[in-house]
Amino acid sequence: MSSLPVLVLNSGSSSIKFSVYEAGDGARTRLFEGAVDGIGTDLGKFWIKDASGKKLVDETPALPTRAVAFKLVSDALHSGHFPVPAAIGHRMVCGGPTVLENQIITPALIDEMESYTAFAPLHTPIAVYIMRESLRLFPGVPNFVCLDSYFHRTMPEVVTHMPIPSEYATMGVRRFGAHGISYESIVHQLQPNVPEKLIVAHLGNGASISAIRNGKCLDTSMGLTPTGGIISGTRTGDIDPGVLLFILRKIAETAESATDAADQLEVVASKKAGLLGVSELSNDMRDLRDAIKEGNAKARLAVDKFVWTIQKWIGSFFVELGGLDMLVFTGGIGENDIVSRAEICAGLGALGIKNDSARNNVRGEATISAGDSAVTVRVIPPAEDLIIVNHVVRLLGN
Ligand code: ADP
Question: Which candidate among 56, 247, 254, 269 keeps its CA 20 to 30 Å from the CA of 221?
């Protein structure tokens, strides 16, 4: 295969990240990367770097809407400074129960995935907007969807099935998991020595954990939506359904309609809860760590809850896997927050996990377990864009 420029578009709830790779004959070279971040604010960030890390764009524009944000990206990509992409890969959290495979994007496929917006309500609207814009702005260029839920497709039915009346299950309600492209990238980076029993903790603004046996997903903490599982920046994680009903009834006393009440409940569970809700300060781990140093008890409680739920999930995955060979930390907190890793590992001695404080005192890739730890503990940054490029190249070949 000759070398092809591949564009990767990876949208989050308030950011659009992108990168351009040169892909050919197994080689993958990143030429550029960039992001617009802070969508919905007056002071966003827009930057583009070349392969040497030199900043080509570094701006702080107002980003009132996703349309304004994506226009910055598409104008830059059409400026003549970047190669015209031969193919485009889009990250998508969840395409619903009928779209489980990575595949070429058509307008009909976008409509189908959009009909399951409720399964990733913070992520799907921006992702489908960018897909439609990308088909319009890059006519003739094949666009492919790469799903986070793709990695979780190997989970057995006992894991994916929800204990609800079957009429809702037939509407597609089940566990899909999220962060699948990150997990796939960790397994990819561990090859050819992927341990049999592996737990990966993806700890970012959104946080989840997966149990992986022989490179295949066995279980994951997130459920139908990325709101489930462990507590994260602004999301509840798993919670007694009675709590949501209690809040819903309170909201319903003043809501304008049933839809309004549901929307308000979603904001509470997905945007106002988690680390932010408990600390009443911030969803950002760096702010919480600073506040803890100053004696802020609510920040301490928020982080303690974060650590506690992660330990519980790791404990249950240990049982499910029948032991553990390796624990990997990834995501912004997993890669950078030395104290969170130390606190999580400190409670996992019963599983044979022993952290080495000197080895743990790093940011980025490292082995941080002690020499006599029964479980290897590593930090591995995710390489999601590379996985998307690999899928695009494979699907182009098909
Ligand atoms: P997203 O889910 O939005 O991709 P990231 O993976 O970038 O999020 O992770 C963001 C989280 O990582 C934030 O809570 C942030 O505070 C945390 N983080 C980033 N750098 C550090 C650091 N040096 N120390 C502690 N936490 C950090």
Answer: 247
